[in-house]
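Tokens in:
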């Protein structure tokens, strides 16, 4: 299996190179040269435990790591989760009439967010590949909340990695910030950018697009631009679809801002897993909902909400979907992305058909009401991002089971959750332990010059000394 760029200007590369490269040198995103067809394997995979299923599916995309070695990396990645099923499910009633609704809990990893499912594996992959090559990499990431802490948890303390995480100063939850800034390992660097998450993401992409800077700083990516993250997320869509599909395929409801999580579900459907639709659930930052309703992808003003990981107006993974929407035509894709970069708006003409995606935006009032209703009718506490998904699920009547991705533990957003329920129920001992720890962060302006200056002063030499 080789990996190619959505923009067509990068030579195909093997999986290990794709992991270390992150963003393609031509400014595009890496994708597999072909999508495996798994329909002949589904009966044998049905009923497998999560880790065994991951060990069966992931090698379809990885042919340059020995199977036994890869199995071990996968097992170690998910040994860090606090639930024996890794990804458990909870039935929720009262939102979709007589239709079944399952919540897929993706928050049982070390930082209590769905990003752990991918980033614990990515950390294992980085460690294996860099030790094998005797190399060092400087990871640069941007986060709207959860990616930063999950990335740090995946690579903290590794001698072959330094990690630099940018987040918008004052615009992530206090607990999300403390999950990043209380980590004392010397290879962890937290940069509080005086701007929005889109500013952070733009700064990161600009440095990756500068081939001289990327090579000179030995930059690698943990954001969802890294293909390995998407690959790890495909696993839980396939796993859940086989668990709940009956005569009808399942539908997934995905709260999303950056499009990476729901894109993994789209690939799982293309692989042949029993998936009907993917419902894109956005908050007031509705650029994706508007695109699927109108065909126009147009940047708007960032709205700050109680689901801050979705407070995004430029979805970094959307380019991967557009590549397939444009029938794998990199020329047409480049034109679209250039139009959007130049004007803040681009159109595909008529809206996409609804065979794969449905989309809707959920207001802050609906988020609060959904948190309260789910607790009142089920005794179950959900965070605001999951509430966006559940509110969206209530709008659609589709055959088969609907599965909503629960992307964060409610304890990460105690103010919003407790206020909606009217009781102090959102807590977790892991997060409570952070409150008295010292923090480390550097506040910088939202400029390429400021980020580059910090990296120049703090990056480690790209190649480790060879032992003599």
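Residues out:
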């Amino acid at each position: 299996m080789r990996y190619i760029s959505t923009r067509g200007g990068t030579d195909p590369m093997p999986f290990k190179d794709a992991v270390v490269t992150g963003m393609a040198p031509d400014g595009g995103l890496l994708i597999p040269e072909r999508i495996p067809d798994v329909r002949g394997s589904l009966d044998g995979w049905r009923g497998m435990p999560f880790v065994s299923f991951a060990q069966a599916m992931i090698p379809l995309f990885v042919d340059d790591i020995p199977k036994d070695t890869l199995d071990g990396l996968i097992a170690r990645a998910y040994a860090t989760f606090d639930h024996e099923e890794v990804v458990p499910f909870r039935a929720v009633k009262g939102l979709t009439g007589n239709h079944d609704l399952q919540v897929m809990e993706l928050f049982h990893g070390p930082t209590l967010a769905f990003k752990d499912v991918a980033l614990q594996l990515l950390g294992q992959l980085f460690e294996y590949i860099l030790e094998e090559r005797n190399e060092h990499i400087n990871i640069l990431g941007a986060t709207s909340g959860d990616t930063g802490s999950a990335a740090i948890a995946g690579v903290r303390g590794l001698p072959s990695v330094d990690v630099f995480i940018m987040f918008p100063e004052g615009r992530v939850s206090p607990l999300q910030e403390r999950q990043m800034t209380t980590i004392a390992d010397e290879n962890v660097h937290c940069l509080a950018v005086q701007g929005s998450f889109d500013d952070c993401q733009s700064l990161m992409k600009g440095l990756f697009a500068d081939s001289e800077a990327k090579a000179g700083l030995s930059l690698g990516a943990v954001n969802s631009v890294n293909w390995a993250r998407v690959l790890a997320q495909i696993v839980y869509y396939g796993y859940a679809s086989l668990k709940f599909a009956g005569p009808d395929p399942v539908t997934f409801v995905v709260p999303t801002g950056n499009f990476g999580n729901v894109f993994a579900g789209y690939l799982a459907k293309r692989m042949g897993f029993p998936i009907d639709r993917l419902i894109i659930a956005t908050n007031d930052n509705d650029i994706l909902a508007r695109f699927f309703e109108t065909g126009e992808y147009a940047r708007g003003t960032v709205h700050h909400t109680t689901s801050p990981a979705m407070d995004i107006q430029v979805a970094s993974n959307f380019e991967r979907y557009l590549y397939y929407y444009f029938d794998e035509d990199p020329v047409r894709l480049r034109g679209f992305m250039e139009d959007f970069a130049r004007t803040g708006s681009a159109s595909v003409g008529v809206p996409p058909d609804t065979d794969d995606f449905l989309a809707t935006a959920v207001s802050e009032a609906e988020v609060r009401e959904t948190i309260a209703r789910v607790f009142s009718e089920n005794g179950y506490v959900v965070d605001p991002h999951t509430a966006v998904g559940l509110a969206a699920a209530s709008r659609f009547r589709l055959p088969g089971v609907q599965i909503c991705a629960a992307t964060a533990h409610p304890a990460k957003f105690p103010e919003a959750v407790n206020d909606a329920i009217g009781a102090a129920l959102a807590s977790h001992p892991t997060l409570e332990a952070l409150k008295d720890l010292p923090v480390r962060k550097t506040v910088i302006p939202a400029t390429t010059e400021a980020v580059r200056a910090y990296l120049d002063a703090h990056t480690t030499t790209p190649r480790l000394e060879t032992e003599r």
